């Protein structure tokens, strides 16, 4: 790979012919049309939050460097921004009057409202630009490793860059598109920001069983993303079919895995939802996110619900009562030791040698309160836990 360092290009040079697409949130072209600011492997513009974009302008006004910018040379006098798109779009939009900076008195100033000296300081700021030439794979591999200023790329944004092509373009159109009418529904079950590729990331994980890179590599030159979309929609439809309602805790669960595990099981949606509601009302269930898998799995794995355990106060109370009774009768304070014929039949265990046990298990309706608590020696408690 060949790199050339440019140090004479100014903000003004890059802003000549600057085109910004407000609708798509993309800086499209600059530098008299020679520069493509947002090639398809770049993420959408995420600096327009009144902080990061303003910080770019503040840096220019103070004469601070904006950091390294990378272009890829793609043809004769034609370039694409590899890194620096967010910064270029920020100053391009500012010079076009798209947002103001606020001075120390809290007064907003658009570019046109700055004095001539300030305008000149911004336009005349020199940029440090590395121009890279080389094989696409080489450049993309290197892009993955460079340290990116500003907001770091998230994993999926890097993968979109590395596997850029028609498949990624089509997939982003579906899964990174806030205007997609189904996005609202999807986000009931999938966590994260579609703009930062979180929905796409999840869709890819589901369809590939976690082998995202492999999947993207194999489908890179597909003209569409039909399989990805079909699979994703099947998972969503399955959730919709099994669960009659939506709870906040359903967002971000491992639905891909649950779908693969349970999609062949028949459910009665009325009964399923009734159980979900009952478990939501159960004060001993401390992990509501586990309710869905617990119900799907036929209510066998209570550990998914992280059922409340006895508190130290409750344990002490039960220990004191059990031990006093045992000493009166001259037997062990572990009720299971007391009925045995071992040497421990008369042993008085210390509280640290015992554990609290549900007399009636939670899963069989037993409550987590002291009326349903007994202290057992550790050996007996472990044995009971395995029944
Ligand atoms: Zn015992």
Structure description:
The protein folds into 3 domains: 150 residues, no CATH class; 88 residues, no CATH class; 74 residues, Orthogonal Bundle (DNA Binding (I), subunit A), CATH 1.10.30. A hairpin with a 4-residue loop joins strand 2 and strand 3. The strands form 3 sheets. A 7-stranded mixed sheet has the order 1-9-5-6-4-3-2. It is of the alpha+beta class. It has 17 helices and 11 strands. It is 42% helix and 13% strand. The mean pLDDT is 89. The site of zinc ion has 7 residues, from helix 16, strand 11 and helix 17.
Task: From the structure above, extract its key features.
387 residues; alpha+beta; 3 domains; two-stranded antiparallel sheet; 17 helices; 42% helix; binds zinc ion
